[in-house]
Amino acid sequence: STLGEWQAAGVAFDKARTLDPENGIAWALHGEAIQHVGESGFNDLSKALELAPRSDIVNGLMAVYYRRQQKYDLAIKYLYSASESNPNEPTWQVEIGNTLALQGQLSDALIHFQVATLMDASNPVPWRALASFCVSYNYLVDSVGVEAARKALLLNPGSGSALDLMGSVYLVMGDLDSSERFLLQAEQALPGRAEILYHLGQLYLQKGDKATAFTYLRRAAEATTDARIREAANRLIQTNGGE
User: Which of 91, 25, 22 is nearest to 57 (CA)?
Assistant: First the structure.
């Protein structure tokens, strides 16, 4: 989301906690929103925990706060509290998995992603999270990752992000023709989406077609609001001899 959207959200949640000062979730959401516009948010989150210590959303947002600070042990503690408060919510298993992965504990992370898929097997979101984890860490991509990506696409056919993920899985596996097929479908479903353009750039570099690759990478750099994608795209162009 853009800065303006977070500012608007901050104002809305500020109003919500003024109208209902005992509402812990409103305090937590305000704390989350203001972090995106450069404020700490910690005081709001602490107040939220005082008011609603058993709320999974409050605990989850406190975990996200600590994860941004790279205090992963604290983040995990609050995520376990969130999952205890709402044991049927797969989101918390996914977030525990994401946090363990950031600590390099990939086999432990995998278990939590798989638990999330078992909790809600007909929901594409946990399957997508599992496949993304495998791709991000180049971990069991050709077994667990590809199956999870297939399942996500099966549950959400025609989804641009599911097609992009399938293409990314094949890219990591080195099956460039399959990767191209899925990434081009993804680009049709979500035209101008920076992540997809970036993956197409990576694909054509691997295929040895620099001209096409640079075109996609330049478009990705222009389309994105995420500085990391822009830097990565420009870096790929430069390291491969482009301007």
Answer: 25
Handedness of CA 156, 160, 161, 165 (dihedral sign): positive
The one-letter code for the residue type at 45 is L
- C-alpha 46, offset from chain centre: 25
Average pLDDT, the chain: 94
Q: Is 64 in contact with 36 (CB distance < 8 Å)?
A: no
pLDDT tens figures, 174-223: 999 999 999 999 999 999 999 999 999 999 999 999 999 999 999 999 99
- Mean pLDDT, each 10-residue run in order, the chain (243 residues): 79 86 91 88 93 94 94 96 94 96 96 95 96 97 97 95 97 97 98 96 96 96 91 94 85
CA angle 116, 104, 143 (to 5 degrees): 55
Q: Where are the alpha helices (DSSP H) in the chain?
A: 3-19, 24-35, 42-51, 56-68, 72-85, 90-102, 106-119, 124-136, 146-155, 160-173, 176-189, 194-206, 210-223, 227-239
Q: What is the spatial distance between Cα 164 and Cα 153, in angstroms, rounded to a whole number?
A: 10
Backbone φ/ψ region at 39: left (φ over 0), alpha (ψ -120 to 50), beta:
beta
Report phi then psi at 219, rounded to 5: -65, -40
pTM for the whole structure: 0.87
